[in-house]
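Researcher: Go.
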Amino acid sequence: MADWLFNLPVLGMGIVILGAIYLFTAAIYLLVTKLAVGERLKAFKAITPGILPPLSVVFALLVAFLASQVWNDADRASASVNREASALRAVVLLASQFPGETETHLRGLIHDYIQDAANQEWPDMARHHVTLTIAPPKLAEALRLALSLTPKGEGQVIGQREMVAAFQNALDARRQRIVLSESSINWVKWTVLLIQAGLTLLTIAMVHCDNRLANRIVLGIFATGVGVAVWLIAANTRPFAGQISVRPTLLLQVMPEAGPDGAGP
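Model: Structure:
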């Protein structure tokens, strides 16, 4: 599906999807109604209604399969952001073991990294424009600073070790969220789902071709079910795009306050 559709508000996305499904269903109804005359009418009526349950079950299984994928990706994306925020919060707390200029510099780098992630990486992840080729400069600089420290006393030794581990955890969590930002339902899966829905609608139209009112009612009910299922999957298919995507809220909550020069206090 097109990128513009996934970036629509949820309500707008639903209107577009349902509208397209209804138009497609109407086209099927009109085509079958026009063809259902003479020998073709007898042929259509010879189709047993018993074929509809298997078709519907296959469609339901496809919906369940795709819904499971998108919800699993969304849960993993949320967990990676939570882990990244927790690791950066740990760095901010551990930085107090190195008071003065070192703490100020570390807090400032964390502040700038989170600000860049929220303002630049998140929109780029929504467009699938972020890669793992380049490490985040502010976080990499902060890690180098932590590794270059000369601890004094047991407290600083432990603090440095834990700080480096927290930085590594944050980098790993960032890598995971960037990988997950590339996840989506590919065109093959969408095609199979929509073909299965189209076959079921076509079969319904042929089975009920001799009763136009009943045909319209049944087609309308099933088309609504198809539209709602597609809407549900499309609204969740990209973890970092769309109205109900994973936001950088937790990262912003742990961001240290910036001083007048951009460094943390």
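Model: Residues 1-46+186-232 form one domain.
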